């Protein structure tokens, strides 16, 4: 499974990737610290990104220390204050493994000779890459340069030394013909490729010999591109001349140098297995302009293959490339990049096409490619690899089945009976996380024998798919982490599940009364040979060792005494069968939530990778965990692909929330079904029945009946003498079932099983269509399962239904309404659990693809009682015969409702297959189960209520004591159920001023004020009449003093008395009267106090 992760230079911070800063954790040899500005290193002691000794941490970066003199740099050795900045001295360099400035030695990078001055006799080499070397009068001895004896030639050994450097944003690999240069002599260097000389220098004196001894990679490529081929041999020859350069006095050659080696050019392996080879690169690879990853790829492909999956193909097992890749050096890490050989192992497999005749000889081409370094030489390495794939034991007719009640066959052809009830492992892979399980129960309601398969569960990596009709109906992915399971619904009753190895599981459903049961056929691929175990055996070509007990690993020999059995000719290895039973091993069951919620994903390195576009210069790799997806063109299969998430193909890609909704819904239904099945199994086993009473029919009569009945099975009759599908065994199984039950219904099931086997044999064996085209046509024309349920005609393999019947198998009488068993999860769709209720899941019996859903919508009114809003009719969304969903995403009326209404919707849904005859409606309520619940009152109305301890504010559930936008608001159901309570003042946050009181108070106040003024005027007149003048201000409503002229409003409780009920305005501008609240329950949404 692909996951988004942070790159090396970043760290996880919540849901984001943020740059690392000094002090963050790092791993030695990684690029963890390279995204931080400045000089720094990963401290080997603390494993943290640390600034170099000349730098200091500041604002998430390393900045150079400022100084005025050397003491300002701390007095640390080799650090100088240059231009007010602490810097390594000219004769030292920064050691990026410990962050210290250390003396330059031989091999240190340089530009001038002075930088090498601490090593006596050293100089800066003129040849690239420029490093400190011993001068021509000196020779190296234990990291020192010692003076040579003048006039003596010491040319004894020559080798090829490779190095790298970056100049002008371009990466170069250099090839040095390395030898001892002695002062006073002349030299000539010659280069040879596979024995032929490709370059010869002029004769130069010793001062120019070092520079003449080096060639860049591009220079070598221009001389001869074949230098850069797998296993090419490069040599250099040095000729020393006398002091005048006229007489050759000594010639020494290097050993052969191979730039790139391949361990083998010829591979042989058995089909289903793998083979590996190793590529070793000895040339430095890098990218000059890149600061991020720099990679060289090895691409393996077949030039003659169209990659259309018509025949076998060679694929590479890798996560994302059809070969391998190496990591090169960049500008940011070239100084610390280790110049060692790069070994890359490439593993190949034969990718098969589920046919018997498969290609075995291949001529593959391996070549290099880099879109980071575009030099021609890195696109030039090529070689051919011959591959021979051998076939082990024949895969023809190697298929395992569990038919009818159930008669078993292993991959290697061993047949036996397993008329037991339980949960059995059919196939468990030893190499890959693959498993196929079968669940059985009584074929008919009320009995205990015979038993039939009612469910098949398939796992591959992180995917688990179930087709389950044991005590209910469920056809779903239980887990969908990888996308490695491919599931097709081929018809109403047929499914095909294809696993990554190429193994396919074919399931055919039929009905016995109201019970579903199924035939299971498993077709392996060469990848499964000798890699499986379970009731299908070990697939090693030997049928005699198939009954391996699970726990002990011992081989069971079945009892030959079957005298008490109804069919004594059968083989009954019950002890072997029960050793693979999971009924009492719940921790291993694929139906256990702990298992399907925690499945480990497929190994991302075990994916099939091909490069079909290389001949057209398209170097993109195509990688998939599944064989089908790694084809150059889409593999067309019969039927409808079932997506990994419910109805994902009908709407937008499923979000993680929707995926959770599906899993939550599946878990609850599956839990109910599993518990019911377990109780049934325990009841049957407690009865300790090992046999059942035979029907009133002898074995001879049963054989004769089945043989006669099979005469009407046209496909089987046409092919019985030419195509081997073990018809005699099928006739015996049919007779067995007739003796056990006396029911002729088994004949149709066995005829269908034979027809399916013929179809698979024709598909896999291409010779049949060429040799017997007439038989192939008859089989195809008569391949309709169940003879079109006797309600139609089979024409060219397709059912043409009689009037009044529907589905592709004419199984449903359209005028009969389907039966609804469950809507949503027990009649609810809970958005609080992540459910996205835009399409209500419906489980039942007898749905057709054109089913019509009648939907009546109910919404809550101001009393939180559901009232009808609208009714409509629309097409249901079809999943299978037992599962549809009713689309309701856009049917809500969106009417405006009071803030004191609990927002919920109820749907009554009925379904019809002919748009005329509808079943009785069932209801489902869409709610937030976190705080909402419902009940039916005495009047029969459905009423919404709030759970204790919750508020319902602005359309969402709020837990008691939860604070709002500020510290003064809180959910307090006892005070206000639909609003925040202001805990600082003890009132509702949204409590509005008493507008009516104010409206009455203002005019009353004005009248009082006028009265006071009038009285004052009268008093003044009276006083004037009394010739008494008194200066006084008294306005009645205001308090004033001589020293304080601010007028304060005075409260008068007698003057402003409010007994009027307030009016409330909701958020949509509608004026609503709130209902009386006294005496109502605080938990009811329609009765909560605010």
UniProtKB/TrEMBL annotation:
Pfam families (alphabetical): VWD, Vwde
Gene3D superfamilies: Laminin
UniProt xrefs under InterPro entries: Dev_Signal_Modulators, Helical_Vwde, VWF_type-D
Domain VWFD: 398-578
GO MF terms, alphabetically ordered: signaling receptor binding
Keywords attached to this entry: Disulfide bond, Membrane, Signal, Transmembrane, Transmembrane helix
Chain ranges passing through the membrane: 995-1020
Domain of life: Eukaryota
GO cellular-component term (any): extracellular region
Keyword Membrane recorded: yes
Keyword Transmembrane: yes
PANTHER family for the chain: EGF-LIKE-DOMAIN, MULTIPLE 7, EGF-LIKE-DOMAIN, MULTIPLE 7, 8
Protein name, as recorded: VWFD domain-containing protein
Organism, as annotated: Dreissena polymorpha
Organism classification: Eukaryota, Metazoa, Spiralia, Lophotrochozoa, Mollusca
């Amino acid at each position: 499974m692909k996951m988004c992760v942070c790159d090396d230079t970043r760290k996880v911070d919540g849901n984001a990737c943020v740059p690392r800063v000094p002090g963050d954790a790092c791993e030695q040899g990684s690029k963890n610290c390279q995204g931080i500005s400045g000089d720094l290193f990963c401290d080997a002691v603390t494993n943290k990104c640390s600034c170099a000794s000349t730098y200091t941490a500041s604002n998430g970066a390393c900045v150079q220390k400022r100084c005025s003199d050397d003491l300002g740099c701390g007095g640390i050795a080799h650090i100088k204050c240059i231009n007010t900045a602490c810097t390594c001295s000219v004769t030292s360099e920064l050691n990026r493994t410990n962050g210290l400035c250390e003396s330059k030695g031989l091999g240190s990078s340089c530009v001038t000779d002075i930088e090498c001055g601490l090593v006596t006799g050293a100089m800066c080499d003129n040849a690239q890459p420029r490093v400190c070397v011993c001068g021509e009068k000196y020779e190296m001895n234990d990291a020192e340069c010692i003076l040579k004896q003048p006039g003596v030639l010491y040319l004894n050994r020559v080798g090829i030394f490779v190095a790298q450097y970056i100049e002008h944003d371009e990466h170069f690999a250099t090839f040095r013909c390395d030898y001892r240069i002695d002062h006073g002599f002349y030299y000539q260097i010659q280069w040879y490729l596979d024995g032929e000389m490709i370059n010869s220098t002029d004769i130069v004196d010793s001062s120019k010999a070092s520079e003449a001894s080096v060639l860049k990679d591009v220079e070598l490529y221009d001389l001869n591109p074949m230098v850069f081929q797998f296993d090419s041999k490069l040599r250099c020859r040095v000729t020393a001349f006398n002091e005048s350069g006229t007489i050759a006095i000594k010639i020494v050659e290097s050993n052969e140098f191979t730039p790139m080696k391949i361990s083998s050019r010829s591979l042989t392996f058995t089909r289903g297995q793998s083979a590996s080879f190793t590529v070793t690169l000895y040339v430095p690879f890098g990218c000059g302009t890149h600061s991020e990853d720099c990679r060289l790829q090895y691409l393996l492909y077949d030039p003659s293959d169209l990659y259309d999956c018509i025949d076998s193909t060679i694929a590479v097992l890798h996560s994302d490339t059809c070969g391998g890749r190496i990591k090169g050096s960049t500008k940011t890490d070239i100084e610390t990049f280790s110049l060692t050989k790069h070994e890359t192992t490439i593993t190949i497999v034969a990718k098969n096409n589920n046919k018997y005749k498969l290609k075995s000889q291949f001529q593959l081409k391996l070549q290099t490619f880099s879109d980071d370094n575009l030099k021609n030489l890195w696109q030039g390495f090529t070689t051919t690899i011959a591959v021979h794939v051998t076939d082990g034991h024949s895969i023809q007719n190697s298929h395992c089945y569990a038919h009818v009640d159930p008669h078993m066959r292993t991959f290697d052809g061993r047949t036996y009976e397993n008329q037991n009830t339980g949960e059995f492992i059919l196939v468990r892979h030893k190499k890959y996380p693959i498993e196929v399980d079968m669940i059985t129960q009584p074929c008919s309601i009320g009995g205990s024998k015979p038993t039939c398969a009612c469910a098949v569960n398939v796992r591959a990596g992180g995917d688990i798919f179930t087709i389950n009709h044991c005590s209910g109906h469920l056809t779903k992915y239980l887990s969908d982490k990888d996308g490695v399971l491919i599931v097709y619904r081929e018809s109403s009753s047929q499914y095909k599940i294809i696993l990554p190895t190429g193994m396919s599981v074919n399931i055919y459903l039929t009905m016995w009364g109201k019970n579903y049961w199924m035939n299971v056929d498993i077709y392996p691929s060469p990848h499964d040979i000798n890699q499986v175990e379970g009731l299908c055996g070990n697939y090693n070509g030997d049928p005699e060792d198939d009954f391996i007990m699970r726990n002990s690993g011992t081989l069971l020999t079945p009892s030959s005494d079957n005298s008490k059995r109804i069919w004594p000719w059968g083989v009954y290895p019950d002890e072997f069968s029960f050793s693979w039973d999971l009924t009492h091993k719940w921790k291993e069951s694929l139906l256990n939530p702990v298992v399907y919620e925690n499945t480990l994903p497929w190994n991302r390195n075990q994916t099939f990778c091909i490069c079909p576009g290389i001949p057209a210069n398209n170097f993109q790799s195509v990688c998939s965990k599944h064989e089908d997806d790694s084809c150059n063109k889409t593999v067309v299969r019969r039927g409808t692909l079932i997506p990994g998430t419910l109805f994902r193909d009908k709407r937008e890609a499923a979000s993680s929330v929707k995926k959770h909704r599906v899993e939550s819904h599946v878990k609850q239904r599956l839990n109910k079904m599993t518990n019911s099945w377990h109780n049934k199994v325990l009841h049957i086993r407690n009865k300790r029945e090992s046999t059942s009473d035979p029907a009133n029919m002898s074995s001879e009569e049963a054989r004769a009946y089945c043989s006669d009945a099979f005469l009407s099975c046209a496909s089987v009759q046409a092919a019985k003498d030419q195509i081997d599908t073990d018809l005699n065994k099928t006739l015996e199984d049919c007779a067995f079932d007739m003796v056990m039950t006396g029911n002729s219904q088994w004949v149709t099931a066995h005829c269908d099983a034979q027809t399916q086997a013929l179809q698979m044999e024709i598909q896999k064996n291409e010779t049949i269509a060429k040799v017997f085209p007439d038989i192939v046509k008859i089989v195809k024309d008569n391949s309709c399962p169940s003879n079109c349920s006797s309600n139609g005609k089979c024409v060219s393999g397709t059912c043409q239904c009689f009037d009044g019947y529907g589905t592709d198998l004419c199984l449903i009488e359209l005028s009969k309404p389907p039966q609804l068993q469950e809507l949503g999860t027990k009649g609810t769709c809970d958005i609080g659990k992540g459910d996205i209720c835009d399409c209500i899941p419906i489980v039942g019996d007898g749905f057709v693809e054109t089913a019509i859903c009648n939907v009546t919508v109910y919404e809550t009114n101001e009393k939180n009682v559901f009232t009808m809003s609208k009714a409509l009719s629309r097409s249901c969304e079809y999943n299978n015969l037992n599962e549809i969903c009713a689309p309701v995403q856009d049917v809500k009326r969106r009417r405006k409702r009071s803030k004191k209404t609990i927002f919920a919707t109820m749907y009554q849904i009925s379904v019809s297959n002919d748009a005329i005859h509808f079943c009785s409606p069932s209801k489902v309520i869409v709610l937030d189960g976190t705080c909402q619940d419902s009940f039916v009152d005495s009047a029969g109305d459905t009423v919404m209520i709030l759970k204790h301890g919750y508020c319902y504010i602005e359309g969402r559930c709020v837990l008691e004591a939860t604070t709002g936008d500020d510290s003064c608001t809180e959910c307090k159901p006892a005070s206000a159920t639909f609003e925040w309570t202001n805990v600082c003042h003890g009132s509702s946050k949204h409590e509005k001023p008493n507008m009516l009181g104010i409206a009455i108070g203002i005019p009353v106040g004005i009248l009082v004020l006028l009265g006071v003024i009038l009285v004052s005027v009268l008093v003044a007149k009276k006083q004037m009449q009394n010739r008494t003048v008194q200066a006084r201000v008294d306005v009645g409503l205001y308090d004033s003093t001589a020293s304080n002229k601010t007028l304060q409003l005075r409260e008068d409780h007698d003057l402003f008395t409010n007994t009027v009920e307030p009016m409330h305005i909701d958020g949509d501008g509608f004026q609503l009267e709130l209902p009386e609240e006294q005496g109502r329950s605080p938990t009811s949404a329609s009765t909560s106090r605010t």
